[in-house]
Specification:
The protein has 364 residues and is of the alpha+beta class. Helix content is 32%, strand content 27%.
C-alpha cells in the first residue's frame, strides 16, 4: 500500500514537471531563468529555473531604492557628494565632488538612468558607509524571505558573492511596490532633476512605452549576467511581475510572460475582509460570537481551477467569555488542488461579556 502511494506521488511530480516543461517550450523564451508572479497574492504563474542563483546586474537597484526609501524621513533630504561617489564604473548620472543633490533626484537617477554613482551616493548617505548599507539590503532580503539572494554592493556590478534568483527579484519587487514613493519612481518615463547639467533622465525600461498596462521595471546588464529585466504591468488592478535573467530577448521574453498571465488567469475574490463565516458558542458568555475573516484573499485562477478551491474552518474549542472585538478565535485554510495556499485568522466581530449572576438566574 505504502509503495503504491509513493508511486502515485512520483507520477504526480513527473506530471507537474512535464507541465512546466511544456509551458517553457510553448512560450519559446530565451532566458536561462524566469518567473511570472501575481503581485497581490504572490502566486507564481510560470517559471523556469526560478530558484537558480545568478548574477542580476542593475536589477539590484530595486532593493537599493527600497532600503533607501524605508530608511529616510524625507526623500527631499539634501546629499553632499564626496569623492567616493564619483567616477564609478558603468552607467552614471555624472555626479561631481561637493555637489549637493536631493535624495529624490538620486533615486530617480538610480532607477531611470541606472546610475551606479547614484547607488553609491545613496548607500553612503543612508547607511553612512557602503558596507553598512549593503548589510541593510541583506537584512531586508532575509526579512521578506528572499533567501537565495546576497548583495555585495548597491549597484549590481559583478562580484562572485553578489547574486539573486528570478523568484527573489519578483518578491523584492512585490515588496517595493507597497511603497507609493517607489511605485511612482518605478513608473516614471522621464524626469528632470534639480541640477544645472546632466539633469534629464529617461527610463531605460521600454515596458512603459511598449506594453499595454506597463507600469514599472528595471533593466540590468553586465558581461557576466547577460541581459536581466524586471517588468510590471497593471490591467484593471491585476498587476503581474515578470523577471528574466540572462535573457538575450529580454523585453520580448517578459512581454510573452505577461501575455500568458493576462490571457490565462483572472482574479477571483475567494473571501473578503470582514466577511462573516459562522457563529461560535461562547462558554459563560452572554451571547454567541460572530466570526469574521481578518484579510481578503484575492487569487489568480485559470477558468478550470475555480472548482478546485476548497476551504477548511478551524475554530478554537472551549471559547470562554469575555471576548474582545478583534480577538483571534480560529482560522480558515484555503486549498487549491489539495495544496494549502493561504491560512487566514478568524476574528471576533464584537465583544462578548461574561455572564453575571443575574444572567445565570434569568436563564434558569
Amino acid at each position: 500500500m505504502k509503495k503504491g502511494i509513493e508511486v502515485i506521488i512520483l507520477i504526480a511530480c513527473i506530471l507537474c514537471l512535464n507541465i512546466q516543461i511544456v509551458l517553457a517550450d510553448s512560450l519559446q523564451l530565451s532566458g536561462e531563468s524566469y518567473v511570472l508572479m501575481d503581485e497581490i497574492s504572490g502566486r507564481v504563474l510560470a517559471e523556469k529555473n526560478a530558484y537558480r542563483q545568478m548574477p542580476m546586474a542593475s536589477t539590484t537597484k530595486i532593493m537599493t531604492a527600497l532600503v533607501a526609501i524605508e530608511n529616510t524621513n524625507s526623500i527631499e533630504d539634501k546629499v553632499l557628494i564626496d569623492e567616493h561617489s564619483i567616477g564609478i564604473e558603468g552607467s552614471s548620472i555624472y555626479l561631481e565632488k561637493d555637489e549637493v543633490i536631493s535624495l529624490k533626484d538620486l533615486l530617480y537617477g538610480l532607477m531611470l538612468q541606472s546610475g551606479n554613482d547614484a547607488a553609491i551616493a545613496i548607500s553612503r548617505y543612508i547607511g553612512k558607509t557602503e558596507d553598512r548599507f549593503v548589510s541593510m539590503m541583506n537584512d531586508k532580503a532575509m526579512e521578506i524571505n528572499a533567501l537565495n539572494t546576497h548583495f555585495e554592493n548597491p549597484h549590481g556590478l559583478n562580484h562572485v558573492n553578489h547574486y539573486s534568483t528570478s523568484y527573489d527579484l519578483a518578491i523584492i519587487t512585490r515588496e517595493a511596490l507597497k511603497s507609493s514613493v517607489f511605485a511612482d519612481i518605478f513608473s516614471t518615463k522621464s524626469y528632470t532633476a534639480n541640477r544645472p547639467k546632466n539633469n534629464y533622465f529617461i527610463n531605460k525600461n521600454k515596458t512603459l512605452w511598449e506594453y499595454e498596462g506597463g507600469d514599472g521595471g528595471k533593466t540590468g546588464y553586465t558581461m557576466a549576467s547577460g541581459r536581466c529585466l524586471v517588468s510590471t504591468s497593471n490591467r484593471n488592478g491585476f498587476r503581474l511581475i515578470a523577471v528574466s535573467l540572462n535573457a538575450p530577448n529580454w523585453f520580448n521574453d517578459n512581454y510573452r510572460l505577461l501575455d500568458y498571465g493576462f490571457e490565462n488567469y483572472k482574479h477571483y475574490l475567494i473571501y473578503d475582509k470582514g466577511q462573516f463565516i459562522k457563529k461560535a458558542n461562547v462558554l459563560n458568555g452572554k451571547n454567541d460570537v460572530d466570526l469574521v475573516i481578518d484579510n481578503a484573499l484575492i487569487y489568480p485562477l485559470r477558468e478550470e481551477e475555480k472548482e478546485s478551491i476548497k476551504t477548511n474552518i478551524v475554530v478554537d474549542e472551549n471559547i470562554h467569555a469575555p471576548i474582545i472585538k478583534g480577538q483571534k478565535l480560529g482560522y480558515i485554510e484555503t486549498y487549491l488542488d489539495g495544496k494549502l495556499i493561504r491560512t487566514e485568522n478568524l476574528l471576533a466581530k464584537h465583544d462578548v461579556h461574561k455572564k453575571n449572576i443575574i444572567d445565570k438566574i434569568m436563564k434558569r
